[in-house]
Specification:
Helix content is 33%, strand content 14%. By secondary structure, the chain is of the alpha+beta class. Strand 3 (156-162) and strand 4 (165-171) form a beta hairpin.
């Protein structure tokens, strides 16, 4: 795959599998459980951009079958379905992250060819969204992603698909953006390793 510049990967949510592990990623009205945590960690109405998800200390209030939290105010059903596939199959992912002085280099792969195809679709689709500043506003989305959608011109991204996996290198001259890249890469790696449990714990921490 040719290099893409001025673009950024979401996983995601969600990455890369998790996405990252972000997949990313069934637009529609949120269920009652989607109250309490918004994409930015603020309380709000069910129909607002700050829609929330109820997260009990014991992990209750989550629909692990339908995964309504993977919907978004601006996400397509296809994107949400990709995210659901990645979260349900997170044990198939392997991921390596190198923190660079000016960014990150990640290598993500699924042992399942079909899940790998979904991962590639998710990463390339989210890169296009970031380039356009078109935030999908997925309900469980990390607030770390906000800066990427707000300032896509500050990120230089290269993508390559190899036998080793999908390789994403992202760099920036902005220290704030570099810090966000490092943070998001770690979030995606956690999702790749632990699936939705990683999301539940992050959102509880943000809401606390």
């Amino acid at each position: 795959m040719s290099a893409h510049r001025n673009r950024m990967s979401l996983v995601a949510a969600y990455v890369a599998p998790l996405a990252a592990c972000a997949a990313l990623l069934l637009a529609g009205t949120a269920h009652a459980q989607m109250q309490g945590h918004g994409a930015g960690g603020h309380t709000g109405s069910q129909t607002g951009a700050g829609m929330m998800h109820g997260h009990g200390a014991d992990g209750t209030g989550h629909d692990e079958v339908n995964m309504p939290g993977l919907r978004g105010l601006n996400a397509t059903p296809e994107e949400s379905a990709e995210l659901a596939t990645m979260f349900r199959n997170f044990p198939t992912f392997t991921r390596e992250v190198t923190n660079l002085p000016d960014g990150i280099r990640t290598v993500t792969r699924s042992s399942d060819p079909e899940v790998m195809d979904v991962l590639i679709s998710h990463v390339t689709g989210m890169i296009a969204r970031v380039e356009a500043g078109d935030d999908p506003k997925v309900f469980i989305q990390s607030p770390t992603l906000d800066i990427f959608f707000a300032r896509p011109e500050a990120i230089d991204t290269q993508i390559e698909v190899t036998d080793a996996g999908i390789i994403v290198t992202q760099t920036s001259d902005d220290p704030q953006m570099v810090a966000a890249l490092h943070t998001h890469a770690a979030e995606v790696s956690d999702m790749a390793a632990r699936g939705m449990q990683a999301v539940h714990e992050r959102m509880m921490h943000q809401g606390g």
